[in-house]
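Per-record layout

source: Streptomyces parvulus
name: Sirohydrochlorin chelatase
length: 260
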Amino acid sequence: MTVMTVTGSTSTRTTGGPPALVAVAHGSRDPRALSTVTALLDRVRALRPGLPVHLGHIELNAPLLSDTLAALGDGPAVLVPLLIGNGHHVKHDLPGTAAASPARARVAAPLGPHPLLVDALHARLLEAGWPPRTPRNAAVVLACAGSRDPDSRTDTTRTASLLAARLGVPVLPAYASAASPTVPEAVRTLTARGHRRVAVAACFTAPGRFATQTAAAAPWIASAPLGTHPAMARLLLHRYDEAVIPITGGASTRRETTTP
């Protein structure tokens, strides 16, 4: 786990409440992306009443992260990336934006790898038609956005391994951009190895171009983006909790309710 401290202000003012959770989405021209992320954050608020939860985008959608942080002033905040692995956005874009803001911010770890992420991936595959008893000739392509950063590839490979252990079949990571193999290439590789049923698991937070593009390459079933699955809301809070302790000096901010 990597948690990054970024101080954009010398102020020591405190707000008297828990640090704000700022979920950071990439942004998309697909209108379903914003509505999906908004609904996911509603789930987070339901799980943790009283926690300030905000949204900021890296690009393409409002509010932009810089605007969200500016509105928070010099209070403490934890930036939780709605991204799957450690890539350029997590390592450079988010810390840079935080440093240029007045907020006292920490950047939490990305969503993956983590068992809760695998819970959501597994559930979406079941919804798409993955049989309760796994066929011997089945395999899965784990479709991710892609990054040139080797740490991002390591995180994706680890997530694929966790999903393979859950399903009991091979899971091959593949990418929509910036890295190889592509999803069609991964499908061909698994087919050549004798896997007649190859599913595509969408490792995307929300609908968008990459999710649509990779689903179209599925020769069998393709799962929906992770979206508002309950495990995703719990995972956001888990990443927040990991990062918030240095800000609060170890004081707990957890007062969760149970939701279905």
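summary: The helical segments are 31-47, 65-72, 88-99, 115-128, 150-167, 183-192, 209-215, 230-248. The chain has two domains: 4-110+228-248, 115-215.
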